[in-house]
Design a protein that fits this description.
- The protein is mainly α and 321 residues long.
- The protein has 18 helices and four strands.
- A hairpin with a 3-residue loop joins strand 3 and strand 4.
Length: 321
């Protein structure tokens, strides 16, 4: 579980499932069985600019030739499936298409800038679906709430987003010029999400195309609804059912906090504090019993659930459903 979105698999995320399975399968086949075809999937900028082999943009910017990049990008696609549940498959595919096209343009611009400023000649870049993967970090950073999980050494906070950033850093350091793909992907994600540029209105998947893929490919890659979760609510609308799920989650948070408080008290005073239940006889017959009652300063105050934590969990639940 990479974020707090639950273990729902690819339910309501057929596009993410198809990307992960198809791209990973082709990458593994090229690495193990069809090495002589890898040259057709190389992201060769020199061949694109000088020989006008535009088809290399499609092949070189879709399939990874390095299995380490395939593994990291697959994990990130699996984690970013929450955006397909949130936006819907059509809007999510429009985002991927838009940032893929924008990042292809920014790749060429950044290569020219690097050659003009630093004198670095770059003839090829790492292959794969890396631009859109890095672009997904933009909505991940801006829209996914940060929920603290634990602390390391009392100083470093571990949140529900830490592992995703670690995977992105691992992918960023896997190649020499992959920073160009990361930078172009981040710029593309910012441009696509910008309300001023209105890129999402231009670069989008038409409705009829979305319906065709919905009829043909969605039955193949769709996943069944998880049956290991407790069914909540019988609301007539999706909003009512979502509100009922959020109320259930609030109750679960409160119950977990109460259980944690009980465990802390048990660790400090044993399983049952008999002195609190049955005070000694000398305290019973003491007229000034209030002055001699056991001190409660050592007992920690009950752990309260903050409003911010509840709001964060509500955001997480909206991403789940």
């Amino acid at each position: 579980m990479f974020t707090s979105t639950g273990s729902n698999g690819f339910y309501k995320a057929p596009l993410s499932k198809s990307l992960l399975l198809v791209l990973s399968a082709i990458s593994i086949l090229l690495a193990l069985l069809f090495q002589h075809y890898q040259k057709f999937f190389a992201y060769n900028l020199q061949a694109i600019k000088e020989d006008f082999q535009i088809w290399r943009l499609l092949c070189g910017r879709t399939i990874c030739l390095d299995l380490k990049d395939t593994f990291c990008s697959s994990l990130l696609i699996y984690n970013f499936r929450i955006f397909e549940r949130r936006y819907g498959s059509r809007k999510f595919s429009s985002f991927l298409l838009g940032v893929w096209m924008l990042s292809a343009l920014f790749d060429l611009l950044l290569v020219e800038i690097a050659q003009y400023i630093f004198g670095i000649t770059i003839n090829s870049l790492p292959s794969g679906f890396l631009g859109p993967v890095f672009a997904l970090f933009v909505p991940f950073y801006s829209s996914i709430p940060r929920v603290q999980v634990t602390q390391v050494l009392g100083y470093f906070s571990i949140t529900n987003k830490s592992l995703v950033y670690i995977l992105g850093l691992q992918l960023l350091t896997s190649g020499s010029y992959i920073w160009i793909l990361a930078l172009s992907g981040l710029i593309s994600g910012i441009c696509y999400n910008s309300s001023m540029l209105k890129v999402h209105r231009i670069l989008c998947v038409p409705r009829w195309v979305a319906k065709v893929f919905s009829w043909t490919l969605e039955p193949v890659f769709s996943s069944a609804e998880p049956t290991n979760e407790v069914r909540v609510g019988m609301g007539a609308t999706v909003d009512i059912q979502r509100q009922q799920r959020m109320e259930l989650l609030d109750r679960q948070i409160m119950m977990s906090q109460v259980a944690q408080m009980r465990r802390q008290r048990q660790q400090q005073g044993g399983m049952i504090n008999w002195n609190r239940l049955f005070p000694p006889l000398r305290h019973r017959h003491n007229a000034n019993y209030q002055d001699h009652r056991p001190s409660e300063q050592g007992i920690p105050p009950p752990t309260e659930v903050s409003e911010e934590q509840v709001r964060n969990w509500r955001w997480v639940l909206r991403l789940m459903f």
